[in-house]
Design brief:
With 317 residues, the chain is an alpha/beta fold. Helices cover 47% and strands 16% of the residues. The chain starts with a helix and ends with a strand.
Length: 317
């Protein structure tokens, strides 16, 4: 094969390679197009009915708006401030709603989430002059009672758990256990107190004092909210703000609640001819997936960076 033939053969081979690459690029391009199409279709299917409320159509007849507050009060649970405030605003803005029932069944949770909901109810009451009733089922304790205190009146079952006006933060000390296992923890920080109250270190008096100051400050915020909400009805005792809790029957003479009863007895007593309509934000599958993935990613990141021993989230208990 002479030089010209070799050059021609090389040119043909090069052109074949270029053409093959061109075809692959177009194949990849069309694959992305199809993937995008199917992803868009999937999102549309998942979002059908998304961001709705149980009362999204806006009831056109007079009714009682019921806003559920159930389970752990937390940013990544169903009882989170964003969703509950969204439902509250829908309820208060509906001209056919004659009252708002806070349907409470919770042992508490985040002081931040609880405080946001409390302030939202107080603001909406002032803006719309609509009566608000908190109705406690099995439990209306801690952060849930924080929220209940925003209502004009609180009702509870005789056997409901009510109160628990206190704040708690917990972790474990396991320094001696690590020593017995022959483990030598290594933590690198910038900042004298960055490894605050770490379980593998002896307690430092100044850090314990600082933590107690944080707890006391949040506790006082909780106490103020209860006093502001309940007013002169509250019969304060030395145990009132100690973190103790009572049955609904015991809570009544303390002024923690106004009467014994449930949603139905309250409705029959004050709004007999009105039906109750629940206002609850319905998140579609995609939205719930994004929230759950976000929560899990955050938790994984904390574990990866070994941040789990830094001040555990405080809970109202």
């Amino acid at each position: 094969m002479n030089f010209d033939e070799e050059r021609a053969l090389a040119a043909v081979a090069h052109e074949a390679i270029v053409e093959t690459r061109r075809r692959r690029r177009w194949q990849i391009f069309f694959r992305f197009i199809w993937m995008g199409y199917f992803l868009l279709l999937l999102l549309i299917m998942l979002n059908v009915g998304g961001n709705r409320d149980s009362a999204s159509g806006g009831p056109t007849s007079e009714h009682i708006a019921v806003v559920p507050i159930q389970g752990l009060i937390s940013a990544d649970s169903d009882a989170n401030a964003d969703d509950i405030i969204h439902s509250l605003e829908k309820a208060f803005k509906n001209p056919n709603a004659k009252a708002v029932f806070l349907d409470i069944n919770s042992g508490g949770g985040s002081p931040v989430q609880s405080g946001e909901i409390y302030r939202a109810v107080m603001r909406l009451k002032s803006e719309h002059k609509l009566p608000v009733y908190a109705v406690i089922a099995d439990a209306g304790a801690s952060g849930a009672y924080f929220i209940a205190a925003s209502a004009d009146e609180i009702y509870a079952d005789p056997a409901s758990i009510v109160g628990s006006i206190g704040v708690i933060s917990q972790n474990f000390g396991y320094r001696e256990l690590l020593g017995k296992l022959g483990l030598d923890p290594r933590t690198f920080t910038a900042g004298e107190h960055k490894n605050f109250l770490a379980g593998d270190q002896p307690l430092k008096p100044e850090e314990v004092a600082h933590m107690q100051g944080l707890l006391d400050n949040i506790h006082q915020q909780f106490i103020k909210a209860v006093r502001d909400g309940r007013g002169s009805r509250l019969k304060e005792t030395p145990e009132m703000f100690s973190g103790l809790f009572w049955t609904g029957e015991q809570a009544l003479p303390l002024g923690l609640i106004d009467a014994l009863g449930d949603k139905n007895t309250l409705r029959d007593a004050k709004y007999k001819d009105l039906k109750m309509i629940e206002y609850k934000r319905d998140r579609n599958t995609f939205e719930r997936l994004i929230r759950d993935v976000g929560s899990e990613t955050s938790a994984s990141l904390r574990r990866a960076l070994d941040l789990s021993e830094q001040v555990n989230p405080m809970q109202l208990k």
